[in-house]
Specification:
The protein is α/β, with parallel strands linked by helices. The protein is built from nine helices and five strands; from the N terminus they run H-H-H-H-E-H-E-H-E-H-E-H-E-H. It has two domains: about 80 residues, Orthogonal Bundle (Methyltransferase, Methionine Synthase (B12-binding Domains), Chain A, domain 1), CATH 1.10.1240.10; about 120 residues, Cobalamin-binding domain (Rossmann fold). About 55% of the residues lie in helices and about 10% in strands. It has a five-stranded parallel beta sheet, with helices on one face. Helix 5 links the parallel strand 1 and strand 2. Helix 1 packs across helix 3. The chain is globular and about 45 Å long. The protein starts with a helix and ends with a helix. Bound molecules: cobalamin (B12). The site of cobalamin has 37 residues, from helix 3, helix 4, helix 5, strand 3 and strand 4. Cobalamin binds next to helix 3, helix 4, helix 5, strand 3 and strand 4.
Length: about 210
Amino acid sequence: MISDSANNYMQDYLHHLLSGNRTMCSSIAKDYIANHPSIKGLYENVFKEALYEVGLLWENNKISVAKEHLATAITEGILNELYGNLEVLEKQNKKVILTCVENELHQVGVKMVADIFEMNGWDSYFLGTGIPINELIKYIKEENPRILAISMSIYFNYQQLVKMLELLKLEFPELSIIIGGQAFTHKKDGDFKKIEDIKYISNLYDLDNYLKTI
Ligand code: B12
């Protein structure tokens, strides 16, 4: 449940996103941090909620594809801007590689996930979208991460995910894999979340708690 205050920030942020005002969006984000010192709160309650609203407006033809692209680009830019100010706990000497299931183009959520790892002292290697599985396997061999994090927003990529996980488990039986993304909330089938041996984490608060336990 979003507080009234966070909701006001979200509405304000959304308003300026839709008018393409990056400077105002950036000030709102900094103001939020000054008043609620929580990057997770900013990401979950302001950025994510505003982009979900953008999605609904787009789906209902209330805004153009161009505005949706602009809103995403502004938010990604602000994530980059805030990165230098993330408060990082003691370095853990642990690596995570983050990527998306093949065919997936949504990368903002998993970029936030990378920041939560960084704040917990991990070294994160955010590959974004579009990495072919053979290249991913090569890179995992090079970096030897403790965790591989995979994002999926579109549920018709599910078979792709299963194939990808099978290959990865074959190559790296000991590698911990976590998955997340909206595909798992849209699909109503309960079994969808229960891919054997793979941990599903739905949001940044749960991820942060999980990272404090391992
Ligand atoms: C921006 C956007 C795009 C951009 C993405 C650009 C980019 N750089 O990422 C572009 C234009 C490419 C795009 C394309 C499409 N999109 Co789009 N898109 C969106 C939009 C508006 C915002 C996405 C976003 O950034 N959300 C905010 C982030 C922060 O939220 P999140 O991804 O859920 O992440 C959170 C959690 O899920 C979690 N999480 C995410 N990943 C992971 C991974 C791990 C390991 C963990 C632990 C947690 C975790 O952490 C985040 C914080 O809580 C959404 C609307 C929405 N509801 O999100 C639609 C939306 C996702 N898109 C949608 C659709 C339909 C499409 C297209 C099929 C449209 C089309 N006809 O071409 C294509 C598909 C392309 C593809 N193959 O992937 C639908 C999906 C509907 C569905 N049920 O599947 C949505 C919901 C819009 C809608 N309301 O209809 N899209």
